[in-house]
Amino acid sequence: MIRAGDKRLVLLRAERRADRLCSEVMRVIAIVDYRAGNLTSVLRAVRHLGHEAEITDDPQKIRAAERVIFPGVGAAGETMSNLRKLALDGVLRDDVFRAGKPMLGICIGVQVIFERSEENDAQCLGLLPGEVRRFPARSGLKVPQIGWNSVRQARPHPIMQGVPDRAEFYFVNSYYPAPARPEMVFGVTEYGREFASVVASENLVATQFHLEKSGRVGLRMLDNFCRWNGKPC
Fold it and tell me: How far is residue 19's CA from residue 13's CA, in Å, rounded to a whole number?
């Protein structure tokens, strides 16, 4: 027979084990799996920098993660469709962004954070006011933009600490973000027109370029995010 005191001791030990496991989960960076490409290269980059991360579509793991990265390539309409099917749109909106958890969007991840995209006329997450537009058809302008381009830092942000102004990053995009408020623009790039290539608001920061493919400066920004406390500038 188990005495009452023994039962309490067993329960206390179980609670401590659960708390320890929870704290371990909290230190993991969740890379959102919404059936897109390029997730593994982001995972390798984060682990190369010495941070623990995992690719997951589990809402509970995303909620428990210390911070969240939303990377990938793809079309806005398909991305939003997959997020809804996986019940991750509400998780990203309510349990990550509105909860104040540090959140990083990369490539398509900077586009679906706005209200709408011209690509597929998609209704997006609406985390930030604004829309996503296609580069204009213009003689001599190849769309999509593929290759290296410079980023002018419009204002300082912790994610860009130690990164030279006008450093070059790797882009692959036919569409670009157009934030509704200028104070959300932290980096600017020229490609047929000037557009926002780094946007941020409170605990959210996002880049149109691929950090994981941009050499040392990209890794520096990725590492900065992994250490950022998510506080506004």
Answer: 10
